[in-house]
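Subject: two folds for Thursday's group meeting

Dear M.,

Sorry for the delay on this. The cluster queue was jammed most of the week, so I only got both jobs back this morning. I'm pasting them in the order they finished. Each block is the input sequence followed by the predicted structure tokens. Could you check whether the formatting survives your parser before we put anything on slides? The first protein is the one we discussed after the seminar.
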Amino acid sequence: MTVQNWSENILLADFQDDPAFSDDMASLADQVAANPNLDVVLNFAQVNYLNSSNIARLLKLRKTVCVNNSRKLRICGVNTHVWGVFLVTGLEKVFEFTDDVAMGLTSVQIEE
């Protein structure tokens, strides 16, 4: 995973498939817990599948970022197969999505 401090308050993370996904998600969760003033943009362009463990980690990250810290979380670059997982699980209504990284970064900045 590549994590960039895109700005003072925005963290941009590029994810890949497991096993890296799980390790990277844990690392990202630690960073967000350490700094509650971060909006997070997750780039899923290289993610080709999600399992139940990945989904649980995403939900936990969402709770930390959006509920506990009152910040924004965007998922972008989701391919058709992974989008199907979000649709089947009903999570397309829980998370906010954008087409690409540029739109994700713009959406968290505009809604300040």
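Second protein, same layout:
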Amino acid sequence: MLTLLLVIIYLAFISLGLPDSLLGTAWPAAYKDLGVSVSMAGIVSAVISCGTIISSLMSSRVIRKLGTGLTTTVSVFLTAAALFGFSLSPGYWTMVLFAIPLGLGAGSVDAALNNFVALHYKARHMNWLHSFWGIGASLGPVIMSYFLARSGWRSGYSAIGWIQTVLVAILVSSLPLWKRVSNGQQAAETAGKVFSIKELLGIKGAKQALATFFCYCAVESTTGLWGSSFLVLSRGISPETAASWVSLYYFGITFGRFMSGFLTMRITNKKLVRIGLCMIVLGILLIMVPTVDFILMCGFFMIGLGCAPVFPSLIHDTPENFGSDVSQSMIGLQMACAYIGTTAMPPLFGLVGQYISMSLLPFYLIIITVVMISMVERLNRIKADKAPSQTSDR
């Protein structure tokens, strides 16, 4: 029963990743069709991000009322409807309107499934879960590119919408399974109180955990968004080569999470996070110093490998760090901080790159990474002081 449900959760995370990379792929064709400037994609992206942040903050209340299974089903339905809305949008502002349910659906399903897996499955499944998100994020541009070459960007959004619709049907049929899995475990996702942000911030280690998620997503998203520009403008690499090297960064994340699932059978989450952070630092150092092309390429791949275990491992440790009764509320707030990092920090470096120099990217990343390492170690010390005899077997 748990295995079948896990397969469904993996499919749901593929579907979560599918829309995340569509806008950037479709926009070069979409903005001309919609009659707006190329920069207007920023508004659509910002609306999606705001919706995701809001739904992450509200996820604890929604999940405790509906349960994880129904919340996931409704959330995927919202994303499917939004994708169909994108495909049918007669104008730009209609697309902005449909960006609202796209963001709302993504935030709730992300927080719901992360907490469910943290409560019911071992750490390896959390890493594999996020690896499946990477598969979805990689497939999205492939599907969109196929339709761009044939019938246009609207057909690409429609095709992803139909994939999401199929998943909605699977999720509806699996609702009894979610209830059975929760039975006998006091339905942890629907039991207990909903914690306010003030209450969560008052818990020892909460601020450090939230800062860690903010910093992690700042590093991950800034590297992905500005890596190619850094290589072209600062290192003199051709745009085509730069794009392929940055794709190695995303491959490093996906492959690294797949491998991390096996490593968790022998290494604790705490050690895995430390290894990942060290690899991020090493990767940044490799791209910091002007050197041969092969070293630069390895640097981006190394950053991706280092990023791979950090987010899933920290999410999986949330019930252990703060208690299963608090985990859903805490994961929702952690996801919100993660999305804020994704939304705020890449544009901030864009200003740095535009008005100072794009070559400062490695220094920007290393500062954020050092802060992240500091927050992780402070969280570890707080956890050790709270339960000095406790060791993780995950």
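Two things I noticed about the second structure. The radius of gyration is 20 Å. The chain has a mean pLDDT of 85.

Cheers,
T.
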